[in-house]
Design a protein that fits this description.
Chain A: One of its GO terms (biological process) is transmembrane transport. Chain A: It is a multi-pass membrane protein. The complex is a heterodimer of chains A (323) and B (272). Chain A has 323 residues and is an all-alpha fold. Chain A has helices at residues 2-10, 12-56, 76-82, 90-97, 99-132, 138-150, 153-164, 169-176, 190-214, 219-226, 231-242, 244-259, 263-268, 276-285, 290-322. Chain A folds into 2 domains: 13-85, no CATH class; 89-322, MetI-like fold (Orthogonal Bundle). In chain A, helix 9 (190-214) runs antiparallel to helix 12 and helix 12 runs antiparallel to helix 15. In chain B, 78% of the residues lie in helices and 0% in strands. Chain B has 272 residues and is an all-alpha fold. The chains are: A mainly alpha (323), B mainly alpha (272). Chains A and B meet through helix 1, helix 2, helix 5, helix 6 and helix 7 of A and helix 1, helix 3, helix 4, helix 5 and helix 6 of B.
Chain lengths: 323, 272
């Protein structure tokens, strides 16, 4: 650093030149910091959605890729505009005609909503207990909540098959203790899907809840208690409203991916389950109908636009607050 | 603050953690089962681990998964760190809203949509499905998670350190590599770990974007689970859990040691 001071004193002219160069360089590097991830995400995230939309308007064909191309630039700009005539909304019409798709959308939203509420009920006491735990063990508890997140999602879902099977561990336990006399059928029912979603997404709920409960000023509760407020109503009037940002973030983090969930309904729900992620998967892999699966994806995306925008806004607001 | 840890709080935490960990513990226990049944205990045995290592398909898939994981996590860490810098340092530029939308949306986007859209992109640009396409897909997904992790560290970063360095004549680039990068390094390391485990874990996006010869371990496990539950899968899962657990423990120990060292340095500096 003494070097820099010496140079600036002895040769002010060259130093000014250097600083202009450095500033130009910095400006360029600064631009690159934005441009590289921006271009990457445009190319691998935004453009793919446009392609999905485009293909959802094309017709199924027996070829590879299995659809007729639309809106290509092969014939130049005029060919592109002429292509608008070839667009077909058949796939969307097909989705409305077949009750299967409508039912799958509705079922997915209902299952996701119920599971979100269940996850909130299970997660809230855990987050609350963690927030009130002695400050010395809080980091350990936090680590223990995050740790399952690092182990494979597929493995955690798979672990439940062995537990919920008719001859599985849960039934063995219940039969042995004499609580039930007939094995319960849980696997391949909606109950199994609820258990699977609550289990897999629990950390997503607990973490935002914990971070808003930990920030809370608990002297408020004591003040309410001193003024004669019973604990339950103190909870509903003070704790819960103050934790609302965490509740909203947690619910969105569970609800949005749960609507399009594939692995859980496929492995725990059995073949009868009607959920949209599974329907899309089957259209794509079993029926090889790319245009219809694209149309399913477009509608699913539209369905989730509102909650996703909410999520993004909540994130942006949290960002502002942190500053 | 008066922290009373009531019986209710302790109970809910104990039950909660039992719910989170019991299924994984049972899975591990039954991977050492002598019996072919996954749910009836027939004595201790490690034979499933032995047969695992003779399963060529599974070993190939493991190798593919490890390579995809390391390569994609590395690229995702660089891109995600740049994205985090953009989000925290450049608050005003054209298209910022779109940018933050593109960073946060993949975190919640159902995987079937991401997988399908990436596949259609690869088909549109004529890229054959295989190792490269899975890797590109994983970079895109995991860089957003890295961005969030690194961003949370950058937000609490004391910028006067950077200003001091630049006042003393360091160029912005030098400042970044000598001051900023070392400070946010723990977040970058845990971002890499997160990206690696997400890539290791992914079934849906890999199924869409992978092609012949690039079957990943989750795809292999999934196809075997569909045929039936066997202790061999339990053994494969246990190894995967062990790898991740060791990695996380090493990372957190290293993190803690660095933290202790930093505190010692600060104290030494104060005594000066």
């Amino acid at each position: 650093m003494s070097n820099a001071a010496v140079t600036s004193a002895s040769a002010p002219a060259t130093n000014a030149d250097q600083s202009i160069l450095a500033r130009l360089g910095a400006a360029f590097v600064g631009r690159l910091v934005i441009i590289i991830p921006y271009v990457w995400l445009l190319f691998f995230f935004l453009i793919p959605f446009i392609i999905v939309f485009k293909i959802s308007l094309s017709q199924t064909a027996i070829a590879m890729p299995p659809y007729t191309p639309v809106l290509d630039f092969k014939d130049g700009i005029s060919g592109f505009f002429a292509g608008f005539g070839a667009l077909s909304f058949d796939n969307y019409a097909w989705l409305t005609q077949d009750a299967l798709y409508f039912n799958a959308y509705v079922t997915s939203v209902i299952i996701a909503a119920i599971s979100t509420v269940l996850t909130l009920i299970v997660g809230y006491p855990i987050a609350y207990g963690m927030a009130r735990a002695p400050a010395t063990i809080r980091p350990t508890l936090l680590m223990l909540v995050i740790l399952p997140f690092w182990t494979s999602f597929l493995i955690r879902v798979y672990a439940w098959i062995g537990i919920l099977k008719p001859e599985g561990l849960l039934n063995q336990l219940l039969l042995a203790t004499g609580i039930i006399s007939q094995p319960l059928i849980i696997l391949n029912t909606y109950t199994a899907i609820f258990i699977g979603i609550v289990y897999s997404y629990l950390p997503f709920m607990v973490l935002p809840l914990y971070s808003s409960l930990e920030k809370m000023d608990y002297s408020l509760i004591e003040a309410a208690k001193d003024l004669g407020c019973p604990p339950t109503s103190a909870f509903w009037k003070i704790t819960f409203p103050l934790s609302l940002p965490g509740v909203i973030a947690g619910c969105l983090l569970v609800f949005i991916p749960a609507v399009g969930e594939f692995v859980i309904p496929d492995l725990l729900g059995g073949s009868q389950t009607l959920m949209i992620g599974k329907t899309l998967w089957n259209e794509f892999f079993a029926n090889r109908d790319w245009p219809v699966s694209s149309a399913v994806a477009v509608i699913l995306l539209l369905l989730l636009t509102v909650p996703i925008m909410f999520f993004q806004q909540a994130q942006a607001r949290a960002q502002e607050q942190d500053k | 603050m008066n922290t009373t840890w009531s019986r209710f709080n302790v109970t809910s935490i104990v039950l909660g953690f039992a719910f989170l960990y019991l299924p994984i513990v049972l899975l591990i226990v039954f991977s050492f089962n002598e019996s072919k049944l996954v749910t009836v205990w027939g004595g201790f045995s490690t034979k499933w681990y032995v047969s695992l290592f003779h399963n060529q398909g599974l070993m190939d898939a493991t190798w593919v998964t490890a390579r995809v994981g390391v390569i994609s996590a590395t690229f995702a860490t660089v891109l995600g760190t740049l994205a985090a810098l953009t989000l925290t340092r450049y608050t005003r530029f054209r298209g910022r809203l779109l940018f933050s939308g593109m960073v946060f949306a993949p975190l919640v986007m159902p995987e079937v949509i991401t997988g399908l859209s990436l596949l259609l992109l690869f088909v549109a640009i004529g890229l054959d499905r295989g190792f490269l396409t899975v890797t590109l897909a994983h970079i895109t997904l995991t860089m957003c998670f890295v961005a969030v992790v690194v961003q949370s560290r950058l937000v609490s970063f004391d910028r006067s350190l950077e200003e001091a360095a630049m006042d003393l004549g360091a160029t912005p680039v030098k400042t970044f590599f000598q001051i900023t990068l070392p400070v946010i390094m723990p977040a970058i390391v845990s971002g890499w770990m997160l990206a690696f485990t997400l890539s290791l874990d992914d079934l849906v996006i890999a199924s869409f974007t992978s092609g012949p010869g690039a079957t990943t371990l989750p795809m292999k496990i999934y196809s075997q689970v569909r045929l039936g539950v066997t202790p061999e899968i339990n053994a494969a899962c246990t190894i995967l859990i062990a790898v991740v657990a060791v990695g996380v423990i090493i990372a957190s120990v290293a993190n803690k040691r660095r933290e202790v060292q930093r505190q010692l340095d600060e104290r030494a500096a104060q005594r000066g």
